[in-house]
Amino acid sequence: MDFTDLTKKLSWRGFIPVKCRNGKEAADKILSLIPVNETVGTGGSVTLSQLDVKTKLAERGNRFFDRNAYESAAHADWFLSSANALTENGDIVNIDGSANRVSSLIFGVTNVIYAIGKNKIVKDLDAAIDRIRNYTCHLNAVRLGKSTPCAITGKCGNCTGKECMCNVTTIVHHPTRYQEKVYVLLIDEELGY
Ligand code: SF4
């Protein structure tokens, strides 16, 4: 996939885009960007599991906080995540149930790395929300054993309540003034969902 146009748009927005040919290259890049003595937080992510990057970081000595240690993850030196969708204009869209992931992506952690497979790239914001509500959420709901309408029908039923996985939507247009480095790894491979 040719990421040239998207790379230009992300750079203009203040992100640091990095083109990766595949997941292995992305994992190597993540390991090279994060110093061994710095801490790393993350939320749940199928993409990061596929990259096996959490294990590699922990094995070489990085202190690692996952979503079970979300208070520490929110103050780590780095936060690692994929994204639910990335528009062709460079907006990064995520929807969370508990918001620990999206909150750390926008405030409290200085350096962020998004690892995004090419299957997450969509035309615009409407397509991003549609993708997440009618595709991603269904698969996550099934994976996590939720009883939401999307888990049953495969389509969003606009649920509310404790089981809802769509309580907060974030659209990141640019890095904030409190963030130093926000990398967007554009991976030419289908990863996560
Ligand atoms: S709002 Fe509810 S039904 Fe719709 S996608 Fe989210 S969790 Fe599923």
How is this structure best described in words?
The protein is of the alpha/beta class and 193 residues long. It has a single domain, classed as NagB/RpiA/CoA transferase-like (Rossmann fold), CATH 3.40.50.10420. Helix content is 36%, strand content 22%. It is built from eight helices and ten strands. It has helices at residues 4-13, 23-33, 46-51, 53-60, 70-73, 100-106, 125-143, 149-153; strands at residues 16-20, 40-42, 64-65, 78-81, 85-87, 92-96, 111-117, 121-122, 168-172, 181-187. The longest helix has 19 residues, at 125-143. The mean pLDDT is 95. The site of iron/sulfur cluster has 13 residues, from helix 7 and helix 8.
